[in-house]
Amino acid sequence: MRCDSGCGRCCGPAPVTKAELKTIQAYVARRGITPVSQGLTCPLYLNGECSVYQVRPLICRAFGHVDKLQCVKGYDVPMAGLDRKLRKLKVAYTTMDVLTR
């Protein structure tokens, strides 16, 4: 999928599962990444890019690939097989395995 350098328009508040959070926290600690509070923009969107791209949550991976998470610039690329992963994520969200704050 095409993304414009420094865009970050899809990098807003995102719910994550507890497992995703642990993975991200470990990645941030290993790499010495310092999150920055920036209003509604993700605190891990730094210097025009995702600082945790390798371990970003599934919800972030889905942007631009599923109907209800479309790129505001229209760079969408539908992705086969993503529905199964999103169903797992929905189960995690509905069983409260997500951060609520």
Question: Which key phrases capture this entry?
Answer:
32% helix, mainly alpha, two-stranded antiparallel sheet, 101 residues, 3 helices
Tell me what the structure shows:
- With 101 residues, the protein is mainly alpha-helical.
- The protein has one domain (18-94).
- Helices cover 32% and strands 4% of the residues.
- It contains 3 helices and 2 strands, in the order αββαα.
- The protein has helices spanning 18-31, 58-62, 82-94, and strands at 45-46, 49-50.
- A two-stranded antiparallel sheet has the order 1-2.
- β1 (45-46) and β2 form a beta hairpin.
- It is globular and about 35 Å long.
- The mean pLDDT is 80.
Short description:
The chain has one domain (18-94). Helix content is 32%, strand content 4%.
Task: Walk me through the topology.
Elements: H1 18-31, E1 45-46, E2 49-50, H2 58-62, H3 82-94
Domains (count): 1
Say what oligomer this is. Answer: single chain
What gyration radius follows from the Cα positions, in whole Å?
14 Å
Biggest beta sheet summary: 2 strands, antiparallel
Strand ordering within the main sheet:
1-2
The helix/strand order is HEEHH
Helix tally?
Answer: 3
The overall strand count is 2
Q: What's the shape? A: globular
Strand content: under 5%
**Which residues form runs of ≥5 with pLDDT under 50?**
none
Helix content: 25-40%
For the termini, the CA-CA separation is 30 Å
**Structural class, from secondary structure content?**
mainly alpha
Mean pLDDT: 80
